[in-house]
Amino acid sequence: MERRSFLMSGIAGAGIATAVATRAGAASTPPARAAAAPAGGAAAAIPAGAAAAAPHGVNSDGTSVSLDPRDLPRVSDAGERRGDMLFRMLGSTGERVSLIGMGGAHLSRKPMTEESAGKLIHAALDRGINFLDNSWDYGHGNSEKWMGTALAQGGYRRKAFLMTKIDGRTKEAANSQLNESLTRLKTDHIDLVQFHEILRFDDPDRIFTEGGALEALVAARQAGKIRYIGFTGHKDPRVHLYMLEVAKRNNFVFDSVQMPLNVMDAHFRSFSHLVVPELVEKKIGILGMKTMGDGVILKSGAPVTAIECLHYAMNLPTSVVITGIDSDKILDQAFEAVRTFKPMSADDVAALVDKTKTYAATGKYEFFKTSSHFDTTAKHADWLGEDSTLVQQLGPPTG
């Protein structure tokens, strides 16, 4: 069966139940509902290009895609179970990664210490999590330093699929940050490095220009310092789509893309509706984050639980759902979500997402989309690096 005749039957064996369809600017003919495929089998398909548009033309958030939760992509197979953890394939890499990823930002937040962070990392790896998230800028470098110390002990580095992120948009800045990350993480290679906070439409242009950060990561991959390359962002799905378009123009394919995937996202500037189908079509690994909006969704008054938030993200064709873990209790919660997860039908997804509709319509509880609270690189623009040579030569003075 040809690849485009159905959405592939597995993200590590996880069948996908709706087709690549819902994107901004897609055709206006509504597709028929897709039925969930049996585990490991082919899914009913919506042909690429027959996407559902917003019934009234344009949504209040400016997108023109249907926000019907029944149109969301979903898995029909939970994944490969090993012990207490589920595993899925990371896009086209051939890597099987744990469905739960351990978020790095929380590991260096008070009252965490290097000792307590190390114990949690060891516990997570011992229980079956293998995907570890981090970033060059988390906790003033402490998240990487503390994770590096933990991984250097007792052979734990061999148990981990290690990911970190860099902020540099220039080759020079990216090289500097990558080398610092390697030192902090006490490793000779990082499995996945991602461009962090792709928030602005100029970020892709800066990364892909001559002397841009992509040159640094491609060279690092060739040198064996990193294995895979991806990008992250939390502001607007249209910026993600532009990053993918710029990559295509430059004949480059990312191995992974990270974005907010939560029960409120489905209603406003929706990465789930706009970006996820594109990644499934391109067989790029999907990394979910901000599943609970860094706790804000649970404080909003919306009648959803932490487990339901995790299940929503797991039900999408995600390779990994990254969640902040800062205690044994939260670690247990993540494993409970895995233990109790069963693929949901389109109606089940709709019922869950509808619980948040009145809270989510304007994005006010998704602070990462509608405020600068999470925009670290906006507060530290110097981390991005200098403007390109062309801009410096021809641009007028500023300030």
Tag the structure with descriptive keywords.
single chain; 399 residues; alpha/beta; TIM Barrel; eight-stranded parallel beta barrel; three-stranded antiparallel sheet; globular; disordered N terminus
Give a verbal description of the structure.
With 399 residues, this protein is an alpha/beta fold. The chain has 16 helices and eleven strands. The chain has one domain: TIM Barrel (Alpha-Beta Barrel), CATH 3.20.20.100. The chain has an eight-stranded parallel barrel, surrounded by five helices. The longest helix is centred in the N-terminal third of the chain and has 14 residues. It is globular and about 55 Å long.
Q: Look up the CATH topology.
A: TIM Barrel
Total DSSP helices:
16
Structural class: alpha/beta
The number of E-state strands comes to 11
Oligomer state equals single chain
Q: Roughly what percent helix?
A: 25-40%
Q: Mean pLDDT score, rounded?
A: 87
| Corresponding CATH architecture | Alpha-Beta Barrel
Name of the CATH first level: Alpha Beta
Q: How is the main sheet built?
A: 8 strands, parallel, barrel
Strand order of the largest sheet: 4-5-6-7-8-9-10-11
Q: Tell me the fraction of residues in β-strands, as a range.
A: 5-15%
End-to-end span in angstroms?
Answer: 59 Å
What is the fourth-level CATH superfamily?
NADP-dependent oxidoreductase domain
**Outline:** globular
Order of helices and strands: EEEEHEHEHEHHEHEHHEHHEHHHHHH
Low-confidence stretches: 1-14, 18-51
* Domain tally: 1
